[in-house]
Structure formats: structure tokens, C-alpha cells
Specification:
Number of strands: 19
CATH architecture of one domain: 3-Layer(bba) Sandwich
Radius of gyration: 22 Å
Structural class: alpha/beta
Number of helices: 13
Distance between the termini: 13 Å
Helix content: 25-40%
CATH topology of one domain: FAD/NAD(P)-binding domain
Strand content: 15-25%
Largest sheet: 7 strands, mixed
Oligomer: single chain
Strand order of the largest sheet: 6-5-14-15-16-13-17
Length: about 400
């Protein structure tokens, strides 16, 4: 490897984005992913302006927009179909200068992978050791980190822990941290097998959420007319159903269109089911030595603001920009921690609050009061709320002057 090298542990959205950013900063990068595939084919993702701006900074924004559908129509409704709030994607794009988009995760993964040399991706290998490397006799450079995986050992100047909510590196670096906890919500989701139309034969809304009592149903439409839907339920941890699609149909029977149409267009084997866990206890730092934590490994949050991937993308750009402009790895990581920890942990707290006021709210009187408050909120206030976390300007990534 060259004089400046990094190993990214984890090949998800945040890890791949970090690898692209570090390469733009002039570093050699190896991504190590223990899964045998980097796709999440059963899900879609909605990206706000901050996520799209991060992708544009990484040089893949145009490709992502070409594979996505802009989210202009939709909003929030009750199970009967009554409109609580209308989405004004045009106003948001006008305010932010960037749209909200919906894209299959598999497409986003593919675009990120294709921005990296194939030889930099190591798939199906698990990192077994991350420890200080023994300095060579007479070495003048700072100590490096030895990363071992699949019978291979690399010495790197930086390790990026992007290994998800169950991060093994986080547990190793912060053994006293309690780790992720169950949020109280479980989610079932799938991508429809075929395009779905609305009740009038037109295409369905670009993005929509429906809040019931202790349940939420939402969808994201894609350019080809298919859609990703998700059903979030308040339930005990570990609950599983013999036939997940049948359970969703039972649980959301009688809810408004296009919910029945979305479920009718879904194959039973396409449904994914997982519990929603989060890092309720904030980490004291996003760095430890020459290791930087990123994405869910650093600040796993509930999906109720749609900011999880966006925050991981912000992490990736901020880390690469710091590496490219700071005089040393230590100062770059200190800057990364200072710029990312407060913001991302605040977004995680707000996502938790949003879940409690939205999907997790179950008492009828409380639900009625929430719905009335939403209907009475002026559209301008709704736009300002949406702008709160999406209004982010990415730092520029420059060729590295960082000395390893």
C-alpha cells in the first residue's frame, strides 16, 4: 500500500461512501465486508437533500439521481385516508436546492461499488484483529494499525469502523458502553414485484406515511412504478410471524389505498422482518486512537426521520474532508469527532421523539390530539421542520496533505 492507507470495515452505504471519499483525498483504501453480497435488495431508501449533497460531493450524485425518483407528492394520512399533512417536495427543493429522492438500496449500493476499483473490495471476509502494528526497526513514521481478515494482514494508517449497529469494533473500543437496545418497534418491508397504480389508474404518490394506533405504514415509489413499503409495529422484541405478508395484510386490513394494492403486488418471500434497535446511550467519542466510527456503528437511530443513511453519508464526507486538509491523522480525527458527534446524536434523539409522537403513539385520545395538531400546523412550519436536519452544507474534499 502507499504511504497513506486506510481499511474500512463494513461495506454498507457509509463504508462504501467513506472509501470513495478517502480515495478522493488521495489515500489507498481497502473495504472489508464479511457478507458475501453488498446489496440490500429487499428495501428502498429515501434520501433528503443532505444525503444527496454528500453523494454529489463524492462524485456519484448524478448517477444516484438518474436511478431514483424525486419525491414531490404524498404526505401523512390516517388509516381512513384522511389527509393530515401534504408533502410539498417542490417547496423543499426550492429551499434546499436539492430534491428528496427515493431509490432501491440495491441500486445505491451498485453505484457506490462502481465508484471504487474492484480490487479494493474484499467480500466475504471477517476482520478478526485490529491492533497496533509493530513498528519496523528504525521507523520514523507513527505507529500503524494491523488489520487481520481471512488469513490476510494489512498495516494501515487509519481504520474506519463502518460495521453497523452490532459493530464488533465499537464493542472492542468501548467495552463499557451498553450498546444498542430495542426501540420498541419492529418493521416488515418489501419491494413490490410489479408497478402499483392509485385508485384512478395514475401512479401512486411519491412518498407517503400513514399513522394508526401503534402502527405506521409507508411507501417510497421508484422510477419504474414499483415501490418499497414498510410496516412498523409496536411489539415485543423478537416477535416473528409464520407468514409475514399475511400478518401485514391482517394488521392493516381496512386501511386506505394504495396499501392493499401494495401488499397485493408483493411476493410473500420478498418480505423482510427485523427489529429496530438504536444507540440510546451516546458514545463519548467517535474515534479511538486511529480508528473512526461511522454510520450505525457510531449513532444508530430509529428510521422515523429518514436520516440514518443521510447521517452516515455526512460522516463519510466529513471524515474524508478532514483527512484531506488536516496536517495529521490525529488532528483529522479530532476534527471529525467535533463536527459529527453533536449533530448526529441530536438527529438520533429527534428521530426517537418522532417515533414516540408518530408510529408508537397508541392511546386514542393522544392519537386524536396529535392528528389535530398536525392538521392545524401551517404549511410553512412543516417545511421548516423538514429543513431542520436536511439543511447541511458538505465540506469539500481536497487531495490529502495529511501526514500519516
Amino acid at each position: 500500500m502507499s504511504s497513506n492507507s486506510a481499511v474500512v470495515v463494513g461495506g454498507g452505504i457509509g463504508g462504501l461512501a467513506a472509501a470513495i471519499g478517502l480515495r478522493l483525498a488521495g489515500w489507498d483504501v481497502t473495504v472489508v465486508e464479511r457478507a458475501t453480497e453488498l446489496d440490500d435488495a429487499g428495501a428502498g431508501i429515501s434520501l433528503a437533500a443532505n444525503g444527496l449533497r454528500a453523494l454529489t460531493t463524492l462524485g456519484v450524485g448524478e448517477a444516484v439521481e438518474a436511478a431514483s425518483r424525486r419525491q414531490y407528492t404524498g404526505g401523512t394520512r390516517t388509516p381512513s385516508g384522511r389527509r393530515l399533512a401534504r408533502m410539498d417536495g417542490t417547496a423543499l427543493e426550492r429551499e434546499l436546492g436539492a430534491p428528496i429522492i427515493g431509490i432501491p438500496r440495491a441500486a445505491l449500493h451498485r453505484i457506490l461499488r462502481e465508484a471504487l476499483p474492484a480490487e479494493s473490495l474484499v467480500i466475504g471476509a471477517e476482520v478478526t484483529a485490529v491492533e497496533a502494528a509493530k513498528p519496523a526497526i528504525g521507523a520514523t513514521r507513527p505507529p500503524r494499525i494491523r488489520v487481520e481478515y481471512g488469513g490476510t494482514a494489512l498495516d494501515a494508517d487509519l481504520v474506519v469502523a463502518a460495521d453497523g449497529i452490532g459493530s464488533r469494533l465499537r464493542r472492542r473500543l468501548f467495552p463499557d458502553h451498553p450498546g444498542p437496545v430495542y426501540s420498541g418497534s419492529t418493521v416488515l418491508r418489501a419491494i413490490t414485484e410489479r408497478p402499483v397504480e392509485g385508485t384512478t389508474g395514475d401512479s401512486i404518490a411519491d412518498f407517503e406515511l400513514t399513522w394508526g394506533h401503534g402502527a405506521e405504514f409507508g411507501h417510497i415509489a421508484f422510477p419504474d412504478g414499483r415501490a418499497e413499503w414498510h410496516a412498523v409495529l409496536t411489539a415485543p422484541a423478537g416477535v416473528r410471524y409464520p407468514d409475514p405478508l399475511a400478518e401485514v395484510r391482517r394488521r392493516f386490513a381496512g386501511w386506505h389505498e394504495p396499501i392493499p394494492a401494495l401488499l397485493a403486488a408483493t411476493r410473500p418471500e420478498a418480505v423482510l422482518h427485523h427489529d429496530v434497535n438504536e444507540l440510546v446511550t451516546p458514545l463519548p467519542s467517535f474515534t479511538a486512537g486511529r480508528v473512526a466510527l461511522l454510520g450505525d456503528a457510531a449513532h444508530a437511530m430509529t428510521p422515523h426521520l429518514g436520516q440514518g443513511a443521510c447521517q452516515a453519508l455526512e460522516d463519510a464526507v466529513t471524515l474524508a474532508a478532514a483527512i484531506g486538509s488536516e496536517p495529521g491523522v490525529e488532528s483529522a480525527l479530532a476534527r471529525y469527532d467535533a463536527e459529527r458527534r453533536t449533530r448526529s446524536q441530536a438527529v438520533a434523539r429527534d428521530a426517537r421523539r418522532a417515533g414516540r409522537m408518530g408510529q408508537q403513539l397508541a392511546y386514542p385520545l393522544a392519537v386524536a390530539a396529535r392528528n389535530a395538531a398536525i392538521r392545524l400546523t401551517p404549511p410553512g412550519a412543516m417545511v421548516r421542520t423538514a429543513l431542520r436536519h436536511a439543511d447541511w452544507t458538505p465540506p469539500q474534499i481536497t487531495a490529502a496533505t495529511t501526514r500519516a
